[in-house]
Design brief:
Layout (H helix, E strand, L loop, with lengths): L7 H23 L5 H26 L7 H28 L1
């Protein structure tokens, strides 16, 4: 039995992970020129986009009847941007003290 079509959860995961990646890049672009409130808001939005993208990606990986391409891509992109953001934040906190 061949899998047909793409999972709605997988496509949702991919879309949210791309949006999280866009907000990740916007944080890096505007970190010097924008106010701290704007950068913090973008970082929080990016965190929730990665959270939703990763959760729906993992959920789509357990789907038996659909193709898993977008779920895998969404999970990888969300995890990568989340790990990079978390490591940069931890390095920043370590250098502050």
């Amino acid at each position: 039995m061949e899998r047909e079509g793409y999972s709605v959860l997988g496509i949702t995961s991919f879309i949210f992970s791309i949006l999280g990646l866009i907000f990740f890049l916007l944080v890096w672009i505007f970190v010097d020129s924008a106010s701290e409130t704007l950068v913090g808001s973008m970082a929080i939005i990016q965190f929730f986009m990665n959270l939703v993208g990763g959760a729906t990606g993992i959920a789509s990986l357990f789907s038996n009847s659909q193709k898993r391409l977008f779920g895998i891509l969404g999970t990888i992109i969300s995890s990568a941007t989340f790990i990079i953001t978390l490591s940069v934040m931890l390095i920043g906190f370590a250098t502050m003290s």
